[in-house]
Amino acid sequence: MSHDSPPQKTARHVAVVMDGNGRWASARGLERLKGHARGVDRVREIVKVAPNYGIEYLTIFAFSTENWKRSAREVLGLMALFRRFIRKESDTMMRDDVRVRFVGDRVRLDKKLSALMEGLEERTRHNRTLNLTVALNYGGRDEITRAVRRMAKAVKSGMLEPDSITEDTLNDYLDTADLPDPDLIIRTSGEHRTSNFLTWQAAYAEYVFTQTAWPDFYEAELVEALEQYRNRDRRFGASEAV
Ligand code: IPE
Ligand code: IPE
Ligand code: MG
Predict the structure, then answer these.
(1) pTM, two decimal places
(2) Does residue 78 have its Cβ closer than 6 Å to ligand 2?
């Protein structure tokens, strides 16, 4: 009889809705952008420790297709933060062997930012330890809509046969074509909704909601979320956990 403990269930792909930066700042009498800046510190920390927990893919929601509704000041501040992040973290990503990808619609982003995004993707292309995906100007419905548009074009040009279209085909047209589905989606700051994040990909993801605002999401919070994940039974429609 074997006394080996069962293999640890680890979340291979963790996705995070980093929410609560604004409230974190307001509660301290600071302007919202200060909360976003502090949020970047947490991103740095989580990216650094994620591989220690068996995480191979980390996907973070940085800016949604709906976030353009915010004040020009906040939107411009966030864009500046993204540019600074890419410039500053590029060497760290190389040192830590992190491959960075971006998902979302780049058309609406300014040229300087999209050039930086492309440069970082290119530079980190061969890194393997962690796959970091940043969702920027990302919306799940927008992503599916863009995918369908390209599929329709492929059908029109005779490259794609309508009757041959499967779930895998649609998957291949999404921004996330190269990524496995998320196992665990964490949302911070006490909001219980998806806000258009990974709409297609999250079909069988486990959700963990935390009260902590993202600027307070330290390594211990990640450990706690992974612990909750470990205690879940994933069935994928079957009658017993698989
Ligand atoms: C999440 O924090 C970061 C972004 C959406 C860019 P929020 O800015 O949504 O913070 P709250 O929800 O207003 O506190
Ligand atoms: C989702 O958070 C988007 C990001 C974290 C980037 P929001 O704060 O924008 O979502 P809602 O508006 O509360 O649904
Ligand atoms: Mg929010």
Answers:
(1) 0.96
(2) no
Atom of ligand 1 nearest to the CA of 39: 3
Cα separation, 215 vs 228, in Å, equals: 21
Residue 30 lies in a domain: yes
| Catalytic residue status for 171 | no
Asked if residue 28 belongs to a domain, the reply is yes
Mean pLDDT of 100-115: 98
The total number of structural domains in the chain stands at: 1
CATH number at residue 29: 3.40.1180.10
The CA distance from 67 to 64, in Å, is: 5
Task: Tell me the per-residue pLDDT of 12-67, one tens digit each, with 9 for 90 and over.
Answer: 999 999 999 999 999 999 999 999 999 999 999 999 999 999 999 999 999 999 99
Active site residue 41: no
What is the per-residue pLDDT for 1? 43
Separation of alpha carbons 72 and 59, rounded Å:
26
Helices 111-123/72-95 angle, 10° precision: 20
